[in-house]
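Bit of a strange request maybe. I'm writing a small parser for structure token strings and I need a real example to test against, not something I typed by hand. Could someone generate the tokens for this chain?
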Amino acid sequence: MMLIGKDYRLKSKSLSPLIKYTGIFLIAFLSTAAIHKFYVSVTNVEYAEKDGSLQITTRIFIDDLEEVLNARYEIDTQLNTEDENESSNELISKYLTSKFVIRINGEHRAFEYLGREYRDDLIVCYLELQGISLTEIRSIEIQSDLLTELFEEQQNVVHLKIGPKKKSFILVRENNKGMLNL
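Reply from user aminoacidic:
Good idea to test on real output. This should exercise your parser:
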């Protein structure tokens, strides 16, 4: 009986370094996973026939947009807090206008910033480009540089739905344009 006990203790001593190193590996892996962040925005562009407009919805992580606005305009915006800067809405509009471009048939078209709302950790921005007839659209090009000046890994996903045609793009710093020909 005593021998079995000794064998057991020997086996448990030999497993101890394995458990110890596995624990260290798991802690290191989980800390690296927590540090790594995914940078993405999602934009939907859809033609609304009854309104004759392109309706655009952009979803961006609040903390990422706040960091970019603070760096670019040197103003602490404090988005989605009680202390949110009064000029935040204006700064968001200005930023989106400079970093998100729509061209119809090769011609730059200005959109209107309608506003924004917060949903959990996202800010949802609403834009609209009015006075568009589906019959006049031969091509639509989207250029998105949202957040790419600060986050090299930033991916801007764009979903287009113009009439019966649909197309999606993943736009990055080096490839920031997508086009749908009708």
